[in-house]
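Worked example

This section walks through a single chain of length 277. The input is the sequence exactly as stored; nothing has been trimmed or padded.
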Amino acid sequence: MPIKKFRPYTPTRRFLTVLDFKSEITESKPERSLVERIPYRAGHNNTGRITSRFRGGRHKRLYRLVDFKRTKDGIPATVKSVQYDPYRTANIALLAYADGKKAYILAPKGLEVGSKLMNGPQAEVRLGNCLPLANIPVGSTIHAIELTPGKGAQMVRSAGASAMLLGRDSRQATLRLPSGEIRVVLTTCRAAVGQVGNVDHELVVIGKAGRQRWVGRRPHNRGVAMNPIDHPMGGGEGRTSGGRHPCTPWGQKTKGLRTRKKSNPTSKYILKRRYAK
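Given that input, the structure is written out below as tokens.
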């Protein structure tokens, strides 16, 4: 999706960029049967306490029910439209199955309205189709990958993301994820062929604080600008920069501290960590 720029008739317009939705989005209104409203708590939990700071005041949204399991096997589907989803960076595609059912999926790069898709082991290795890893050729680009068979896609779902199938044996497949991590997944897990669309999303420049407020992000005050009672990095004379390792208000080290437990049972499936050199 191309990036749209503006003349700098205000300071915020000088660097602000937006996605040109007309080039890829074909329909603006969602399918009514596939949306629901999710209560917005603005970072508060069920008791009213703030558990995630600096959130609140966003525009109203409707949640699109995206089919991450894609278990309607052997039934051909037609792409009816490509739509915007306010809950994710990727665009979504509306499918109409031959039996009359409709579903949303993540729209891969290059998917066009009118394309024919199918799910299941008998499906062709073609853009947008969802197959078990056992049926996908080695070296293919994939996305929307399951970690547990039947649970639905959990990995490689954001805009522009893609993984590569490096190898496979009778039971396990080796994947290289977008982070550089190399991981082993069961060959009975499913994945969609291709790269997630909306690849230009990472090039968007927000440009102004008000645009952050539209999506529910409130101003984030720095710890070094606080008093010592409010933050471990606060206090000092003049413009001091903390005087200690960057940390959270509760003393948890940040910016490089690895918080993954050494006893995590899934570590045996990771062949190469994303930060390994």
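What to look for: The radius of gyration is 22 Å.
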